[in-house]
Amino acid sequence: MPITLPETLPAFAQLAHEGVMVMGKNRAARQDIRPLKIGLLNLMPRKIQTETQFARLIGATPLQIDFHLIRMTEHRTRTTAAEHMEAFYRPFARVAAADERFDGLIITGAPIEHLPFEEVAYWKELRQVFDWTQTHVHSTFGVCWGGMAMMYHFHGIRKHMLAEKAFGCFRHRNLAPASPYLRGFSDDVLIPVSRWTEMREAEVARTPGLDILIGSAEAGPCLVEDQGHRALYIFNHLEYDSETLKQEYDRDIASATPVSVPVNYYPEDDPARTPTNRWRSHAHLLYGNWINQIYQTTPFDSMKIGV
Question: Which candidate, 29, 89, 144, 289, has a CA 20 to 30 Å from the CA of 186?
């Protein structure tokens, strides 16, 4: 089954070209089923790239997905055209005022790791989003900074600055093979990492209600389940395209930002060579398992979500 997207959204043509099943709104309305309503609160600067990455993953399951793009109400991006934001995104305040319910919500990361959470311009509204998920969203997926922010809001666990950027592809261990979110996962998983901060394993492990599902001896906790808040937090980037780390590395080099070559990413660690994607299958497994778990547990009457 397809993911429903506006036919003029750049991701529509890109995903159709890749063979992902996509469907326009008019065609979807003629199907006599209830699609899963999934929102993406996109805090990343490169909005089109990020929305395409997540749409690709959640659109690869056998279920029909009704995909909604959401932005912070007052924050204005300087890196994505205003016309794109106006055409495809709705401010959170409008979504909340409409009393909408979502089967799932993804909250992305944001390149503001150096700031304390309280100093982020939209922190007050983002906290409102987190609280709203408890009454209006069946399952929430916080990614990288978004997951750290959710964990801080709900559990008071702070992020910690790293001495140098964790950057590259790191080996991770499957710590909970019986978890429904890790069906089909290998014992050993390669996952892209790109962050200046970390959540410490000891602090997460001693917090009631949190379970570390995937972790790394080098990069720390990766995937954490928070059953009490119907949430998953992932601090790394399975959604990344093959060349996303390369793009970040090239930007850092161009801006004279001190950065090392991303580890275990380029063949023989040579930036002149083309990187190979070795995490795509696990990305599809994780997000496919998340969508399936939502499908198995969400109320058929969407207005009963959060009740």
Answer: 144
